[in-house]
Amino acid sequence: MKLNERGLLVVLSGPSGVGKGTVRKALFELEGHDLVYSISMTTRPPRVGEVDGVDYYFVSREEFETRIKADAFIEWAQFVGHYYGTPRDKVEAQLSLGKEVVLEIEVQGALQVRERMSDGVFIFIAPPNKEVLYRRLLRRGTESGDVIQKRMDKAEREFPLAHKYDYIVVNDEVTNAADRILAIIRAEHAKTERSIHKYIELLEVNNHE
Ligand code: 5GP
């Protein structure tokens, strides 16, 4: 029996308000891929229209802290007063089935994953400029002025961390950004270090010719 090859972990990250969620949704609407989204857990209250088990698993602080102690997260972070984390069991299960798993997480968490799962693909989603980011946070209209300012301050500190990622994708147009991410995922599959083992027999034959 051939064991499944381990899947590819794709980490989408970047400052809050950059449009990570919208880009991720557009990516999943594109044809020709078999990506699985990792649903995060959070203590933030649901926004209007958000569904438990679809957008997030919404839990209490107590429950989240119990899971931290049980080492149930690949990574977790506090973001503007709330916990956010990636459940370990589901991601591991999908990766061992050979699935491509997409995380959409903030920068602190992405850097934790980078240390633990360095064979993933790390993509920083950037705004075209700071002005656009500020306008997007305002337009979203789900947070108070104080929270928007906190998210903006955090973004300023996060921009310089982009150099720790494998790729930077500017979210100028959502569909363009999603197309570029899919192109990156495809290119990653073709990278020699990820694919050479599949062709080794063929290459050996050719060497003897
Ligand atoms: P929001 O409250 O706007 O849904 O999310 C706030 C920030 O937390 C966003 O940057 C979002 O990408 C990030 N986030 C969502 N899920 C996770 C997670 O599981 N881990 C980490 N570290 N960040 C997350």
Can you describe this structure?
This protein has 209 residues and is an alpha/beta fold. The protein has a domain at 9-38 and 99-208: Rossmann fold (3-Layer(aba) Sandwich), CATH 3.40.50.300. It contains eight helices and nine strands. It has helices at residues 20-29, 61-69, 88-96, 107-116, 130-140, 145-158, 174-190, 192-208; strands at residues 9-13, 35-37, 41-42, 57-58, 73-79, 82-87, 100-105, 121-126, 167-170. The protein has a five-stranded parallel β-sheet, sandwiched between helices. A four-stranded mixed β-sheet has the order 4-3-6-5. The relative contact order is 0.20. The mean pLDDT is 91. The structure holds guanosine-5'-monophosphate. Guanosine-5'-monophosphate is lined by residues 16, 20, 40, 44, 75, 77, 79, 84-86, 104-106, 108-109.
How are strands sequenced across the largest beta sheet? Answer: 2-7-1-8-9
Please tell me what the overall shape is: globular
The proportion of residues in beta strands is 15-25%
> Residue share in helices?
40-55%
Structural class: alpha/beta
Task: Name the poorly predicted regions.
Answer: none
The beta-strand count equals 9
The first-to-last residue Cα distance is: 31 Å
Which homologous superfamily in CATH is the superfamily of the domain at 9-38 and 99-208?
P-loop containing nucleotide triphosphate hydrolases
- Would you list the SSEs in sequence order as H and E? EHEEEHEEHEHEHHEHH
Question: What fold name stands as the CATH topology of the domain at 9-38 and 99-208?
Answer: Rossmann fold
Number of discrete helical segments: 8
| Integer-rounded radius of gyration | 19 Å
User: What is the overall pLDDT average?
Assistant: 91
Attached small molecules: guanosine-5'-monophosphate
CATH class of the domain at 9-38 and 99-208: Alpha Beta
